[in-house]
Amino acid sequence: MNSPNSTDDTPAKPATIVFAKSGKTITCAENELILDVAEREGILIPSSCRSGNCGTCQQKLIEGQIQYNNPDAAKDLEPGMILTCNAQAINTVVIDA
């Protein structure tokens, strides 16, 4: 897996993020943070710390799989919730934003 801090030159695989409330489906690299993709596409997700500490960017994951840059940041989340500032889509994900 190619992460943002990786020195591997293998291109990141594509992933798809469906923003259910916004009605937008975006194809991105699987190593892109969901919050960054949302902001680039004009989808408003509240955020503050951008490091997974405050929980402001929490959204409901309706479907799909994500991975975290920092898995410890999400340890206290309710089931089905994700931190978009720290989460990357692994495949097609649907979030309630």
Oligomer: single chain
What is the CATH C-level name?
A: Alpha Beta
Shape: globular
Report the strand count: 7
Give a description of the structure:
This protein has 97 residues and is mostly beta strands. It has one domain: Beta-grasp domain (Ubiquitin-like (UB roll)), CATH 3.10.20. It is built from 1 helix and 7 strands, in the order ββαβββββ. It has a 5-stranded mixed sheet with strand order 2-1-7-3-5, covered by helices on one side. A two-stranded antiparallel ribbon has the order 4-6. The radius of gyration is 12 Å and the shape is globular. Residues 1-7 have low confidence and may be disordered.
Gist?
The chain is mainly beta. Helices cover 7% and strands 32% of the residues.
Topology (elements, then pairings):
Elements: E1 14-19, E2 24-29, H1 34-40, E3 58-63, E4 66-68, E5 81-83, E6 87-89, E7 92-95
Keyword list:
single chain, 97 residues, mainly beta, Ubiquitin-like (UB roll), five-stranded mixed sheet, two-stranded antiparallel sheet, 1 helix, disordered N terminus
